[in-house]
Amino acid sequence: MSPWPIGVFASIDAGLGVHLDVVRELNVPTIQLHAPHAETRNAAAAAAFLKKCDEAGITVTAVFGGFEGESYADIATSARTVGLVPEETRAARLQEMKEISDFTKLLNCDTVALHIGFVPHDTSSASYQNLIATTRDLLDHVAGNGQQLNLETGQESADHLLHFIDDVGRKNLFINFDPANMILYGTGEPIAALKKVGHFVRSIHCKDAKWAAPDVRGKAWGQEVPLGDGDVGMETYLRTLQQLDYTGPLTIEREIPQDRERQKADIGHAVRLLTQLRAKILDS
Ligand code: MG
């Protein structure tokens, strides 16, 4: 595959991503897939989906885990409900994430990805230590399937994420870098963060956002906007990825599943913008 194939975040069933017919219409060659619900995670569903992808010339580059009960309503709710961090659901979600890894293998894909949640800051706490053990357990299962796990960015600062990865100490733990999330969560200037964690970046999102007002940053969401309209700076973002020798997919994410028409239009716009920038940067 040539460098920087365009990608889009997609779903099999009613997830956050676009449906395969939209991917096909937009002529996008790669997808990251939002893991379907448990009842759809079986060999027959995987084979049927893979057949559709093959026919359309679409490659699945990562499968993103997600869980029942997660809510991104506001930052505080996200901290309480998202990923492997909440203790009440940790064991059950670990099991489910292993099943998602197995499903990912059925799709012939070597990458699972995840919002792990808001990693506790007190690294001596029992919750942090158990999260390390849980993540290792998951990574060993993922390794058994010949896969890596990429952590989505945003909920931690670059330094905190690096510290966590170092503490986990497994060779198949990497990063899915999302520049807009750094802005939305108020966890750091995205380009500076990317430079810090770059050696772990194995997949990325192309998403854009505007900062929340300084007095509420980190407490209230910034605003997700169409690609190119926000504070990331797409050309600088791509040039920084080039400096890091990142050649993987440019996966567009536009999280407005409540407005499918606008989602499709905005993704179409993003495809055109990234195609132009890619030509400008790689052909020069
Ligand atoms: Mg993302």
The chain-level structural class is alpha/beta
CATH architecture classification? Alpha-Beta Barrel
Which small molecules are bound? magnesium ion
Kindly provide the radius of gyration, computed on alpha-carbon positions and rounded to a whole number of angstroms.
Answer: 18 Å
- Please give the number of β-strands: 10
Please identify which CATH superfamily we are dealing with.
Divalent-metal-dependent TIM barrel enzymes
User: Can you tell me the CATH topology?
Assistant: TIM Barrel
- How far the N terminus sits from the C terminus, by CA atoms, comes to 20 Å
CATH class reads Alpha Beta
What's the number of structural domains?
Answer: 1
Average pLDDT, all residues: 96
Q: SSE order in H/E notation?
A: EHEHEHHEHEHEHHEEEHEH
Strand order of the largest sheet: 1-2-3-4-5-6-7-10
Q: Quickly count the helices.
A: 10
Q: Any low-confidence stretches, pLDDT <50, length ≥5?
A: none
Please state roughly what percent of the residues sit in beta strands, choosing from under 5%, 5-15%, 15-25%, 25-35%, 35-45% or over 45%: 15-25%
Give the biggest beta sheet. 8 strands, parallel, barrel
**Could you state the oligomeric state of the chains shown?**
single chain
Shape verdict: globular
Helix content: 40-55%
What do these coordinates show?
It is a single chain. Strand 4 (111-114), helix 5 (126-144) and strand 5 form a beta-alpha-beta unit. This protein starts with 5 loop residues before the first strand and ends with a helix. With 284 residues, the protein is of the alpha/beta class. The protein is globular. The chain has 10 helices and 10 strands. The protein has helices at residues 20-25, 43-56, 75-81, 90-106, 126-144, 158-168, 179-184, 190-197, 234-243, 260-282; strands at residues 6-11, 30-34, 59-64, 111-114, 148-152, 173-177, 201-206, 208-210, 223-225, 250-252. It has a single domain (6-282), classed as TIM Barrel, CATH 3.20.20.150. The longest helix is centred in the last third of the chain and has 23 residues, at 260-282.
